[in-house]
Design brief:
The longest helix is centred in the C-terminal third of the chain and has 24 residues, at 311-334. This protein has helices at 10-21, 59-77, 82-85, 143-156, 187-190, 248-261, 311-334, and strands at 2-6, 28-33, 87-96, 115-117, 132-141, 160-163, 178-181, 196-207, 214-216, 222-225, 230-234, 238-239, 269-281, 286-292, 300-305. Strands 3, 4, 5, 8, 9, 10, 11, 12 and 13 form a 9-stranded mixed β-sheet that branches. A 6-stranded mixed β-sheet has the order 6-2-1-7-15-14, with helices on one face. With 337 residues, it is α/β, with parallel strands linked by helices. Helices cover 27% and strands 28% of the residues. It has one domain (2-335): 3-Layer(aba) Sandwich (Rossmann fold). Helix 1 (10-21) crosses helix 7 and helix 2 (59-77) packs across helix 7. It comes from Trachymyrmex cornetzi. Its cofactor is FAD. Belongs to the DAMOX/DASOX family. InterPro entries: DAO (IPR023209), FAD-dep_OxRdtase (IPR006076). D-dopa binds at residues 222, 278, 309.
């Protein structure tokens, strides 16, 4: 059995792990990607916070994805080498003036250990006259630590990594029995998926070791501390933008919003600025949806892409579904041969 996972970001690596741990554990598994070191996963702050508008095929499936994902990262957090994995617990606040619903999250409230209204004293932690606020605890997965850690573990378990640029899924017809497509925005070309568009984001990475909690405000403003005193300041959401050049005006606006919320950040040193193109898909994430790659091949294709800005959060949950779909499709097609 030859299995290929296409995509070198967190969805691809997580899917590869579940492939090996499950039904295909004795398979010859290869992860293919045009680049393993420059993916949108590397830009993400990695906080486990799923937007209220996120959706899978239905509410039951979406809640299962969120539950499975949180439990997966929480288990990694408890491992002996968790400092190398880049997963830790974290807590903080979200504030808003628009509506009480803005600071609520129907996906997270039943999953994370704590999710409650902020009290009057807690509103004093930030600058501004905010009407609504919530406090919650969650997890953080810092991708520039987690991705190398996950890749090393997969390699030690015998999974092969190959750098390869694909122009068509049919190029894999004769090389693999099962292909799982985790190419994110690249699926727009490989699958001719016109529902897939880029959601451009820009963030700043700053040195602010005194920041121990995360803070969210409105206008896509967030401050998320990571490992080694590095804090992510964000952010932006530019729908259907392919521009990967840094915008100095956008960086200035992000810094101004973050410093207005937390004035001590005026003392933070800006280390770098980063841009990423999130793979947003109209209609939700494409998971499963299997078929043969071509009419002249026995190779089957399963999809796992279109997570938008929630690839880090949802990678484990959707990967479990994708691998289960691959198992069922393989069984059904094998029985007909």
């Amino acid at each position: 059995m030859r299995v290929a996972i296409i995509g070198g970001g967190i969805v691809g690596l997580t899917t590869a792990g579940f492939v090996q741990a499950g039904y295909f554990r004795n398979a010859d598994i290869t992860v293919l990607a045009s680049d393993f070191d420059d993916t949108v996963s590397h830009v993400a702050a990695g906080i486990f916070r799923v937007g209220a508008s996120f959706c899978g095929p239905n509410e039951t499936v979406t809640r299962q994805w969120i539950k499975d994902s949180y439990e997966f990262y929480d288990a990694v957090r408890k491992m002996d080498d968790t400092s190398h994995a880049g997963v830790t617990d974290i807590s903080g606040y979200i504030f808003a003036n628009s509506s009480q619903d803005t600071v609520r999250n129907h996906w997270l409230e039943s999953v994370v250990p704590v999710y409650r209204r902020a009290n009057e004293e807690e509103f004093e932690l930030v600058n501004g006259s905010w009407k609504y606020g919530s406090y919650f605890s969650t997890l953080l997965t810092q991708s520039n630590l987690y991705l190398p850690w996950a890749k090393r573990r997969l390699q030690l378990n015998g999974i092969t990594f190959k750098q390869r640029e694909l122009n068509s899924l049919k190029e894999l017809t004769n090389d693999y029995d099962i292909v799982i497509n985790c190419t994110g925005l690249g699926a727009r070309k490989l699958c001719d998926d016109r529902r897939l568009v880029s959601l451009r984001g820009q963030v700043l990475k700053a040195k602010a070791p005194w920041m121990k909690m995360f803070f969210y405000g409105e206008l896509d403003t967030y401050i998320i501390p990571g490992f080694n005193g590095i804090v992510t300041l964000g952010g932006s959401r530019n729908f259907d933008s392919e521009n990967i050049k840094l915008c100095p005006h956008e960086s200035a606006a992000i810094r101004e919003r973050c410093e207005t919320l937390i004035p001590s950040l005026k003392n933070a040193e800006i280390l770098r600025q980063e841009v990423g193109l999130r793979p947003y898909r109209d209609g939700g994430v494409r998971v499963g949806d299997g078929s043969r790659i071509s009419n002249h091949s026995k190779a089957i294709i399963i999809h796992n892409y279109g997570h938008g800005g929630y690839g880090v959060c949802m990678a484990p949950g959707t990967s479990i579904t994708a691998v289960n779909a691959a198992v069922e499709l393989h069984k059904s097609t094998s029985s007909k041969i």
